[in-house]
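Question:
When you can, review this sequence-structure pair and walk me through the tokens.
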Amino acid sequence: MPCQQRRTALWISAAAVALTVITSSLLPVAAQAQEYVSIKGNSVNVREKPTTRSSTLWELSKGYPLQIVKRQGQWLRVKDYEATLGWVHAPLTAKNPHMVVTARTANLRSGPGQKHGRVGKLEQYEIVQTLKKQGSWAQVQRSSGQSGWVAQSLVWGW
């Protein structure tokens, strides 16, 4: 292989390695860039289009977590844990972290792990406020004030 071809091949190889390193280092940042909100009011309508004249797709209660997909003026295109999409008026949301129970039931434990005793049982669709995360566990609080730890694989939100 002539010298010029070898240099070109080395340059292309080095560029490919650099691109792989840069791309892989950016992936975790993109994964963390997910933005969430929760419902601020007691009841908020999720709409088909970003206007109050649009039909209501469903109604969500206080604390329900949503992931932001897109922003358009004062409206947020959001999805829930089932990836159902709709629009919600941004002023009706808050930056208070909440989770919704996605499993049929989930044990609420005294500490972050199965070795800790059960202090309660969460029901599917129950909304809890997120207090802290530790490994694969989240410390949460019910609307009644009871708090404990739940496995993050049984809930969705932030």
The longest helix spans residues 3-32. Residues 45 and 107 are 30 Å apart (CA to CA). DSSP finds one helix and 14 strands in the chain. Residues 98-157 form a domain with the SH3 type barrels. fold (CATH 2.30.30.40).
